[in-house]
Write a structure and sequence with these properties.
Blueprint (H helix, E strand, L loop, with lengths): L7 E4 L3 H12 L5 E3 L4 E4 L5 E5 L13 E5 L2 H10 L3 E8 L7 E6 L5 E6 L2
Parallel strand pairs: 1-4, 5-8
Antiparallel strand pairs: 2-3, 3-4, 6-7, 7-8
């Protein structure tokens, strides 16, 4: 089966701040592209982008996207804090057997996202 979701856009109100935040958290070099009324910084692998556009607002409530951290969940949570993010639910074991752990955080723009990891 192909991935169920084909694209994710994370809203931003300050593209430079968001690119810096996600660059640090994900250990990536992201480059913002500017098309006048819309700016985007694409994640590797054609899976999504940070997007700044009219009417596209960060939200703390709504759809919840989780970033896969593999075996690096604790390190990613540390990077979130270092980048100025806020952990809003600490690392928590998923009760279903063999499903790993998750945490929730607020990014530099006020979006609520999750992190999923094996340990």
């Amino acid at each position: 089966m192909k991935n169920l979701f084909s694209w994710v856009e994370i809203p931003a109100t300050d593209m430079n701040r968001a690119v810096k935040f996600y660059g640090k958290v994900l250990n990536l070099k992201l480059e913002a592209m500017d098309w006048g009324s819309e700016k985007m910084a694409f994640f590797p692998g054609d899976g999504g982008a940070i997007s700044e556009a009219p009417g596209f607002k960060p939200a703390e409530n709504g759809v919840l996207v989780h970033i896969h951290a593999g075996n690096e969940l604790d390190a990613m949570l540390d990077r979130i804090r270092e980048a100025g993010g806020q952990i809003i639910r600490p690392k928590t074991k998923i009760e279903a057997e063999g499903r790993g752990y998750f945490a929730l955080f607020k990014d530099s723009e006020g979006n609520r996202l999750g992190v999923y990891g094996d340990r």
